[in-house]
């Protein structure tokens, strides 16, 4: 027989705050989770007040609602090396959280230093695209080029050539290279052999 408590628990399980709370526990305590290595494996824990079996979620929800929670915000640790607890947590947008990531390092271009995500926003380009270009060692002159201009010349292992030249050298079809570039493939992966590589330009 269904009880009032059962109905309450069902409503809670559909609550966004409840999902945030359970996800927080999973990444801190369930080693099989993909992102556990960034949290639990690094010793990140949840305070007893929020972890309590009976009242943990209610304590967490009370804190959240009295500290600026909104449906477009995510929980953020002020000090990323410390635990999930009231004194170390706040609510931020996903974009604000991206700025806090340890791998979002600053880049200096023409004497101006900004975070990678800030450069991406300034040039209206995807953050991940800029990140992949930086990782591939692209020069400052080419870092923010639109895809249409990037396609003309490609740098692989510090060697810059036109698409046609790379196609001739590698045996990968010209149009295959163009498609790979549009799909975000970079570096030596552009020249990986395919069945199409036997075709001529």
Major β-sheet strand ordering = 1-2
Q: What is the averaged pLDDT score?
A: 80
Q: Note the run of SSEs as H and E.
A: HHHHEEHEEHHHHEEHH
Question: What structural class do you assign from the helix and strand content?
Answer: alpha+beta
Number of helices: 11
Count of spatially separate domains? 3
**Overall shape:** elongated
Per DSSP, what share of the residues sits in E-state strands of 2 or more residues? 5-15%
Largest sheet: 2 strands, antiparallel
**Poorly predicted runs of 5 or more residues:** 1-10, 196-201
Number of E strands: 6
Q: Helical content, roughly? A: 40-55%
What key phrases describe this protein's structure?
about 200 residues; alpha+beta; two-stranded antiparallel sheet; 3 domains; disordered C terminus; elongated; disordered N terminus
What does this 3D model show about the protein?
This protein is α+β, with helices and mostly antiparallel strands and 201 residues long. The chain has 3 domains: 4-100, no CATH class; 103-143, no CATH class; 146-201, no CATH class. Helices cover 43% and strands 12% of the residues. The protein is built from 11 helices and 6 strands. It has helices spanning 4-13, 16-29, 48-51, 56-65, 94-100, 116-122, 127-135, 140-143, 147-150, 163-170, 174-182; strands spanning 74-77, 89-92, 106-109, 112-115, 153-156, 159-162. It has a two-stranded antiparallel sheet. The longest helix is centred in the first third of the chain and has 14 residues, at 16-29. It is elongated, with a radius of gyration of 24 Å. The model is unreliable at 1-10 and 196-201 (pLDDT under 50).
């Amino acid at each position: 027989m269904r009880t009032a408590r059962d109905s309450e628990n069902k409503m809670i399980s559909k609550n966004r705050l409840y999902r945030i709370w359970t996800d927080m526990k999973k990444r801190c305590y369930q080693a099989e989770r993909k992102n556990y290595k960034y949290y639990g494996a690094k010793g990140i824990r949840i305070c007893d007040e929020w972890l309590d079996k009976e009242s943990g979620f209610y304590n967490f929800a009370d804190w959240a609602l009295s500290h600026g929670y909104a449906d477009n915000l995510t929980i953020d640790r002020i000090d990323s090396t410390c635990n999930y607890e009231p004194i170390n947590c706040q609510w931020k947008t996903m974009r604000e959280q991206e700025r806090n990531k340890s791998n979002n390092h600053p880049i200096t271009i023409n004497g101006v230093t900004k975070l990678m995500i800030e450069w991406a926003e300034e040039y209206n380009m995807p953050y991940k695209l800029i990140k992949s270009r930086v990782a591939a060692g692209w020069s400052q002159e080419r870092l923010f080029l639109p895809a249409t201009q990037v396609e003309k010349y490609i740098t692989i292992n510090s060697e810059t050539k036109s698409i046609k030249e790379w196609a001739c050298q590698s045996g990968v079809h010209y149009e295959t290279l163009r498609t790979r570039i549009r799909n975000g493939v970079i570096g030596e992966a552009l020249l990986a052999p395919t069945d199409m590589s036997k075709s001529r330009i």
